[in-house]
Amino acid sequence: MNDTMSRFRTMTGHRLFWPAAVLFAMLAANTIYRPGFLSIELKDGHLYGTPIDILRLSAPLILVALGMTLVISTGGIDLSVGSLCAISGAIACMYISKQPDQNSLGVVVTALALAMGVSLVLGAWNGVLVAVIGIQPIIATLILMVAGRGLAQLITEGQIITINSEPYRAIGLGHALTLPLAIFIALAAALLVAAFTRRTALGMIIESVGGNSVASRLAGIRSSRVIFLAYVISAACAAVAGFMMTANVSSADGNAAGLWVELDAILAVVIGGTSLAGGRFFLSGTIIGALIIQTLTTTVYAMDISPQTSLLFKAVVVIAVCLIQAPAFRARFSRRRRNVPPPAPVADKPKEQVPA
Amino acid sequence: MTTGSLTAGRTRFRLPRKQIPVLATLALLLVMYGIGVSQYTAFSNVQVIFNVFIDNGFLLVVAVGMTFVILTGGIDLSVGSVVAMTAMVSAWLLQEGLPAALVLVIALLIGPTLGLLMGCVIHFFEIQPFIVTLAGMFFARGMCTFISGSSIPITDGFWTRMSQERIGDPKGNFVSISVLIAFAVVAVAAYTLAYTRLGRNVYAIGGNPQSALLMGLPVGRTRIAVYTISGLCSAIGGILLSFYTLSGAPLIAVGMELDVIAAVVIGGTVLTGGAGYVFGTVLGVLVLGVIQTLITFDGSLNSWWTKIVIGGLLFVFILLQRLIGIRYK
User: Fold this and answer.
1) Biggest alpha carbon distance in chain B?
2) Which residue, A53, A349, B150, B199, has fewest beta-carbon neighbours within 10 Å?
3) Closest chain A residue to B124, measured at CA
4) Closest to A328 (Cβ–Cβ): which among B125, B132, B145?
5) Minimal Cβ distance to A308: which of B131, B141, B308
């Protein structure tokens, strides 16, 4: 009895348990509501079905959220990712639309390189403001969030630019190995970031900077360089997400592309267990977080509720997740429970405060 | 002031330095106005200034509430959505046939209630204001579309009267009642911050929450109060917006929180809290309003320039604050 209890406790104590449980519960609820929800079928050599759709549609969010995870774990936040998505998509589409042969692979590659270059410069701008000048991250990136939308509209001259380029479309809608290409791009990015942060010391350095940037500077880590790097990586991720979003619809809309994605990305990171105060980060948690958000959105669509109303559900999720993670809330909750049976169980949990 | 007596020699330089951001905003405003007058003859018309107030009265009220929050070192992302929700609820209840007075009371209660709740969550569960008010923003915006997916017109007599009433001078220049309400809110807020215990607590918490707590100031109560005040200001702003547009629309005031934060920052309030004035916020809103007016007067300039200019100004003022901040240390 005690053994199963402790095993249950270890399981629920795992950082991925609650996010995974929420995701599972949502999928289960969907399947009960709509029995065909989980079915996948093979058509023309491509797999189709709602789960595949969720994976494909969550790819841009996963990308943005990966970069956001690194930024948040340095103790910062990047509000400009939505605008960066709009800018990168706008530049790529603008360049392609000006070329005579939109289907040429060279043109698309040049467009992507151009847009990525600009995004990296803008990411470096954020990085300089935060790491060198020392402006509060939320404000430093607010500048580009406001001005970036304007820049994107300036690039597209306020129009929605439509392109007709097969290679570019493939970024969003193409297939490889029967699965959407977008899934592989997101997966590749996730593996790349994971390899850089978990196979090298970079991840540990980022966590130490996020834990205490002054202490890690005194310990010999160039904090400002690490923080700078996080914003550049975040911008690069946002740029790729921007390509995907615009490729999905084969058009760039400076006003609407990537709108609210920064909030979704922050939400995904928080659901994934990374604390907004910085420190330890969990890439796998972030990915599950992004999947939860996309599943929520898809569910709301499937239930014929207006997409805007999905914000109501998101609000509930944000507050619930934050409360569960908040040490103050847990303390209150566990104290009250402990009060009921006077002799408190021996298995005290001082470790709970570690992932803060 | 007390520290000034210790370093009497430096006091003279220190005081104006604290006012630099506000003075810079004032200078900027005068320069922009000067550019406008020199470029367009119609710009010198007094009505142009009045129109800036008429078009931005609701923004001013919301920015005043945000000033309180930012002075404590917090942030309130929910304001734009609460403004929209207030306008939406008013329009919906009026359509249902409720009397105007009752609608006004209900609409004015929703914002502060939400603010109170958010403040409590922020204080009692120690969750960052950013994320709590983000949830509040999602909630309020979701409620808007929950009420109706399309805009609801307001035909109520009281509302239309408030919307169309013009208070003018003999020369024909006029302001709307909304402007007077906005001024009243500014006056009350300025008095509260400068002369009441609550105001002093707000500055103290923004300056250093630990010290404020050790001094025995009611940190929790004050912190909850500022979010409630911000909610109330957003509700008043929502009512003013519904006077202005005579409708409630689910997607109205999207992104308004950013304009509001920008106005407060340009007005010289330091984002880490502890320093700033309501007067600065008024100037900040005027700067945004005059930018809009300039861009409207110059037909060739496009609306996206507004965003880029606001972003640029944000940068300049934050940099200015930062430079002054460094010298403080």
Assistant:
1) 67
2) B150
3) A328
4) B125
5) B141
Q: Which residue of B has its CA nearest to A310?
A: B142
Measure CB to CB from residue B258 to each of A142, A154, A314 and give the nearest one. Answer: A142
Q: How confident is the model at residue A353 (pLDDT cuts 50, 70, 90)?
A: very low
Contacts of B189 (CB under 8 A, 6+ apart): B64, B65, B67, B68, B233, B278
With contact defined as beta carbons under 8 Å apart, do B171 and B42 qualify? Answer: no
Q: Looking at residue A316, what is its pLDDT?
A: 83
In sign, the C-alpha dihedral spanning A172, A174, A179, A184 is: negative
Cβ contact (<8 Å) for A266 and B311? no
pLDDT of A312 over the 80 cut: yes
A92 in Cβ contact with A252 (< 8 Å): yes
Chains A & B: contacts with CB separation below 8 Å: 136
Q: Do A135 and B319 touch (CB under 8 A)?
A: yes
Q: Provide the strand spans (E) within chain A.
A: 40-43, 46-49, 160-162, 175-176, 179-180, 251-253
Tell me the longest C-alpha to C-alpha distance in chain A: 79
Q: Where are the alpha helices (DSSP H) in chain B?
A: 2-6, 8-39, 46-71, 79-95, 100-124, 129-147, 157-164, 177-195, 197-207, 209-214, 219-245, 256-266, 278-297, 303-328
Enter the ipTM. 0.78
B22 pLDDT higher than 80? yes
Cβ of B122: how many Cβ atoms within 10 Å? 23
Environment class of residue B42 by beta-carbon count within 10 Å: exposed (0-12), middle (13-18) or buried (19+)? exposed
- Among A275, A255, A133, which Cα is nearest to B306's? A255
* pLDDT value of position B8: 47
Question: What are the φ and ψ backbone dihedral angles of A30, each rounded to 5 degrees?
Answer: -65, -40
For B186-219, write each residue's pLDDT tens digit. 999 999 999 999 999 999 998 888 888 888 889 9
Residues 125-144 of chain A with CB under 8 A from chain B are 133-136, 138-140, 142-144
